[in-house]
Fold this protein.
Amino acid sequence: MRRPLLSALALTSASVLLTGCFAAAPDGGGTARGEDGRLRVAMMNPPRSGLSPLSDDAFKLSRWSTAETLVVLDAEGDARPALATSWKQHGTSWTFTLRDGVTFHDGTPLTARDVERSLTRAATASPKPRILDGVRLGVRTSGRTVTLTTAAPDPLLPQRLSSPQLSVLSARAYRGKTVDPVGTGTGAFRLTRVDGTTSASLDRYDGYWGGRAKAAGIDVTFVPDGTARAAALRTGEADIVEAVPVSQAALLDQDLVTEVPMPRTNTLYLNTRKGPFRDPALRAAARRAVDARPLVKGVYEGRADIAEGLLGPAVTWADGLRPARTPAPAGDPGGAVITIGTFTDRAELPEVAQALQQQLRAAGFTVRLDVREYAAIEADALAGAFDAFLLSRATVLDSGDPAAYLFSDFSSEGSFNLSQLADPGVDAALRKAADAPAGDTRRRAVMAAEAAVLATDAAVPLLHERVVQGDAAGVVGAAHDPRERLLVTPDTYVK
């Protein structure tokens, strides 16, 4: 089992990295405790774009409960009220009614004009937030309502508006060329200071529309080194630690560790356009040869879930709607030569590829590996240069809806079609899922589309990753969110 021991030297080095990183309480007597104490949070990735909500940094603002959107998603991915209390569709338009009594952290009240400004800035940004790719968004206001129009009816527009990249900030945030979230959100905590890529501080906002937060504030330190993050939890330097590495999780008190299923699947994509896997029988042979159990037990040390399909346990409704499948008959590989590509950016993937190489060789394939950095291999993968490609892929994108991922990866028009799949039956199922109204009808259509993809053996799902979060013994109410949109909420504090 892959469990490297952490030497005393490494522990000492990690502790030194964290010493002095976490802010003391205002009275200088160390970090306070109780419901009025401050939370110390160690995060993996530093800001990449100055915490601009138009970048992936938006997810940090959401995880700190400082910037908010018109709607939020529930566990099943359905839209629920946030800054908007209700909404209604009229053809290509959706009208949202704003919540009364909301003020920004700079003291100004939330108006429809503020929503128009924020969404228009996002819709005209270059590049646009991912959630608006291909969407032409028009915005108009009337009193306490905002009406959004699209070129074609969009059943997922409310879900799109849950993306943290579409947070609503006050007018002060937009005075410069970049969007400034400091002191301009509406959430339970007011962002007060950002020290580049080192740290950030937030104070409780007592005017929060959702009620007074239990913690006095949040002191964030960005700690890219996984060993150092784990040491911060072990030594009491941090209260909440995100993304604890699998190799470190085993060394921690297991009562302090929570594993959260991720909407992410490790999948072996098989090239259906050229090479040996153009033959459906050989694709079926590869699918039959692959066994994910030793991968989960060995490479992931049991901290992953064996895949039953493309959508895993983080998509809570998938298993209950998954139709039964009859596997296609497998052919004889007969020594067929295949090349599997993957990348080093995710440390586990090269090891997974080596295990798959052994399994496929045992089934009668001749297997070569091509492993590079992702930036150096993506273009070849998209061009179909490999017989198979191993990828860790997010299956629920910004809208919380898997239909976009399925269309991107398996439609003949998809922009990320690593399998080079062009199947009329799959295309029809994907179109039906994309056009279905939100709710149970759409979920059933999504699962029918997944079944259509899997029937081709164009993709062999292996396992679903988990993220490991560390919470100190006294932490109460920390969020464990598969979508990584929530972390510190108004109900989070340290006893």
